[in-house]
Amino acid sequence: MAKLQEKIELKALISGYCSEKGISKADFAVKANVSEATLSAIENEKWDKISVAMVKKLQSFLKSETTGTLYETADFVAVMRACDAAKEHHLMVGLVGDTGTGKTTSLTAYSRNPNVYRVTYEKSMNPKQFFTSLLKEMGVDFAGNIYSMIGKVADELNCKEKPLLIIDEAGKITHPVMLYLHDLREKTKGNCGVVLAGMPYFREHLKKAAARGKEGVSEFLRRINVWHELAGLSVGERRFVVKDHGITDPEKVEELLHHEKFGELMNGIMLEKIISEQL
User: Fold this and answer.
1) pLDDT per residue over 175-228, tens digit each?
2) Which of 176, 236, 226, 241 is nearest to 196 (CA)?
3) Distance linking the first and last C-alpha atoms of the chain
4) What domains does the chain contain, in order, with CATH numbers?
5) How far is CA 182 from its chain centroid?
6) Fewer CB in a 10 Å sphere around the end CB: N or C, the chain?
7) Distance of alpha carbon 255 from alpha carbon 227, whole angstroms
8) Could you give the CA distance from residue 60 to residue 86 in angstroms, rounded to a whole number?
9) Rg for the chain (alpha carbons), in Å?
10) Neighbouring-strand partners of residue 168
11) What predicted TM-score, i.e. pTM, was given to this entire model?
12) In the chain, what's the furthest Cα-to-Cα distance?
């Protein structure tokens, strides 16, 4: 059995998450893909009804929604400002950066705000699966055809106060999904901001497709109000992160400073700690 303390902590984590996001337990149930009865059992501390597998499932979900230690690097601040601007002024913002620059970490942190919905586009998704994922993120249990799903998403966004839709891995979006997102944007542009985050090739692929006259791409590209490209960590930022993790040996610090991307730097730090513990 999962330890009682784990279950008590899980109850607190769920309550904290719902409070931070400004959502109901029913919304959380949809997002986490669990029943309301399960959440009721947790809320009322009926621990005998909560299996080990359920504890692990909810722990995994909550872990995916957290970021660990955050560093206010120039890129992190830029992502926060881009999201703020999109949310406040209903802009559609293109955010690009190479893998490991911290896009997802920063966007995950921002998505803990109320009325912010973050979905990651997966290459294996078809349009209906994408919009099902988006509706689930919004805490909405809804089934229908693509037209009705887009309408439902638009209705939900238009009744929120300054909502923001974040789509991570946007560079992988297929042409049909892009056309459907264009429809969604047209229905919500007076009330909702959008952040499209992807690799640097995201913008270039859109430009090339627009130049070839591919259906709807020019229109979609024009509706992206502003682009921002992440620069990566400065030497000073890298040095601070390394020392913040307790690594002070000058030789090891200099070795780690070669990692310009946040993800690569954190991997290097993790490996260094593992090696140090084994010695």
Assistant:
1) 999 999 999 999 999 999 999 999 999 999 999 999 999 999 999 999 999 999
2) 226
3) 35
4) 4-64 (1.10.260), 74-229 (3.40.50.300), 235-278 (no CATH)
5) 20
6) C
7) 33
8) 29
9) 21
10) 120
11) 0.86
12) 61
